């Protein structure tokens, strides 16, 4: 048996032992976070982009004597997180949502994305992918750009960044600007175009149910189901949208999707914050999935999705950022915290799903929701090797009693030592190992100023600095 290669503390640049270039790795951290929970003295063999084996370290070392074990002291090996709802080309205006009321897509996102040229689309999407990787996400579900460009630019940005991406193609046709037959033909081509890629997985998207005809809602559902893909739709997010649907159809948005034949396992319903008991039953019976986006609810939503009820009723759901911030640990904490404030305090539910619920739905549940449940989201044999090495040797985590809760409540993206996607080391201590992350950030800062100067964005509130100044001037005038 080979002598183990120790990486105590993992200081400095990434060691060559982790940059495999196709070679197999036998990783032996302090803890492996498996589907059955945290396992001490476990190891994982990574080969060909997948986990070849996961089990007790001594057993794997005997089974693979040709591999030198890499001891990862003070580290846990855990699944990469899955962002079940993102808008990669909105990253130049992320801070424009602060303090704004609901339905900002009309005043902010449509004008912003309309001002993006091809370079800006690529840079914005790659910047968002970098932020996601830095925050521990190894997969993002991109809900479809409104920029008038080929979505291959978004695919290229994700591919070049090294993140797994469920790439949505917008199929809106209700405004009569797009012919329905043309829209559906584009959808079919999109599903074929990316069906064999390693990191890019095709998806269809409709902005909101009212943005597409009944035929398109029904046929995109059919096409996606046949291809094993998902259709991403913002559903029951804002009160105004629910009321418009009631006026136009006599049905709430989720009920309307059921009525036209678009509700099923292929649906990924973003937000779903305003659900009646009947709509919860429709979700449970249909097998549809939800992206629970707690930070988006706090920043500009109408309500908090009843995620603990969804979990109890077996409704599939993942956690999504909606482009708010690419920080997976803070997202998991927000998911639990929002349930506690919205539902747990009123009922005396002190557990609110416990820590494991939110880790589960941030990884394996999210992978299932975005249509990749058979591929990623877990540390298990034959699964894609999309994982994190997380430093738990510091004062915040060293005294461990309940690791899932500690990761949810006290975990931080600064603890992420390494990010692997498809078995390759992509980030080391927050920065890419094979492309220039700081250069991208500098270019994004340049481009974003130009884009925002020409985008006809309308904000309701001033910046926080301007608001503070106005408040001070008003007080002085009294």
Keywords:
21% strand; globular; eight-stranded parallel beta sheet; ten-stranded mixed beta sheet; alpha/beta; 478 residues
Write up what this structure looks like:
The chain is an alpha/beta fold and 478 residues long. 40% of the residues lie in helices and 21% in strands. It has 17 helices and 18 strands. The strands form two sheets. Strands 1, 2, 3, 4, 5, 6, 15, 16, 17 and 18 form a ten-stranded mixed beta sheet that branches. Helix 12 crosses helix 13. It is globular. The termini are far apart.
The major β-sheet equals: 10 strands, mixed
Specify the overall morphology: globular
Number of helices: 17
The radius of gyration over CA amounts to 22 Å
Low-pLDDT residue intervals, each spanning 5 or more residues: none
User: How far apart are the first and last residues' alpha carbons, in Å?
Assistant: 81 Å
Structural class: alpha/beta
Helix content: 25-40%
Number of strands: 18
How much of the sequence lies in strands comes to 15-25%
The chain-level mean pLDDT equals 91
Domain Amidohydrolase-related: 76-425
Organism: Streptomyces chryseus
Protein name: S-adenosylhomocysteine deaminase
InterPro entries: Amidohydro-rel, Metal-dep_hydrolase_composite, Metal_Hydrolase, MTA/SAH_deaminase
């Amino acid at each position: 048996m080979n002598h183990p290669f120790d990486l105590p503390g993992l200081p400095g640049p990434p060691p060559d032992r982790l940059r495999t270039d196709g070679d197999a790795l036998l990783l032996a951290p302090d803890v492996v976070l498996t589907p059955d929970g945290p396992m001490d003295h476990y190891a994982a063999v990574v080969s060909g982009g997948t986990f070849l084996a996961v089990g007790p370290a001594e057993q794997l070392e005997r089974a693979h004597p040709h591999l030198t074990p890499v001891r990862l002291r003070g580290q846990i090996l855990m699944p990469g997180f899955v962002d079940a709802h993102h808008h990669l080309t909105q990253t130049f205006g992320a801070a424009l949502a602060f303090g704004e009321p609901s339905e900002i897509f009309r005043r902010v996102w449509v004008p912003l994305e309309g001002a993006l040229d091809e370079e800006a689309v690529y840079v914005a999407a790659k910047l968002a992918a970098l932020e996601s990787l830095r925050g521990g996400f190894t997969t993002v579900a991109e809900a479809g750009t409104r920029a008038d460009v080929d979505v291959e630019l978004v695919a290229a940005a994700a591919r070049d960044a090294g993140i797994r991406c469920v790439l949505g193609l917008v199929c809106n046709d209700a405004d009569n600007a797009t012919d329905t037959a043309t829209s559906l033909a584009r959808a079919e081509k999109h599903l074929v175009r990316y069906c064999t890629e390693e990191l890019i997985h095709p998806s269809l998207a409709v902005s909101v149910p009212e943005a597409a005809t009944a035929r398109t809602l029904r046929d995109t559902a059919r096409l996606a189901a046949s291809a094993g893909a998902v259709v991403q739709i913002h559903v029951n997010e804002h009160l105004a949208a629910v009321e418009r649907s009631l006026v136009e159809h006599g049905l709430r948005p989720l009920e309307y999707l059921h009525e036209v034949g678009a509700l099923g396992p292929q649906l990924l319903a973003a937000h779903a914050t305003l659900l009646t008991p009947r709509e919860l039953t429709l979700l449970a019976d249909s097998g549809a999935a939800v992206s629970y986006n707690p930070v988006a609810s706090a920043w500009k939503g109408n309500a908090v999705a009843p995620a603990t009820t969804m979990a109890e009723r077996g409704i599939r759901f993942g956690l999504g950022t909606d482009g708010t911030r690419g920080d997976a640990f803070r997202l998991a904490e927000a998911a639990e915290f929002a349930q506690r404030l919205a539902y747990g305090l009123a009922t005396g539910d002190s557990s609110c799903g416990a820590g494991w619920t939110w880790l589960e739905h941030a990884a394996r549940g999210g992978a299932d929701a975005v249509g990749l449940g058979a591929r990623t989201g877990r540390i298990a044999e034959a699964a894609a090797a999309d994982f994190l090495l997380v430093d738990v040797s510091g004062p915040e985590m060293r005294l461990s009693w309940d690791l899932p809760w500690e990761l949810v409540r006290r975990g931080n993206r600064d603890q992420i030592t390494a990010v692997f996607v498809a078995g390759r080391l992509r980030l080391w201590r927050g920065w890419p190992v094979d492309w220039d992350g700081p250069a991208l950030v500098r270019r994004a800062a340049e481009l974003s100023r130009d884009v925002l100067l020409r985008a006809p964005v309308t904000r309701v509130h001033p910046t926080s600095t301007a608001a503070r100044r106005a408040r001070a001037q008003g007080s002085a005038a009294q």
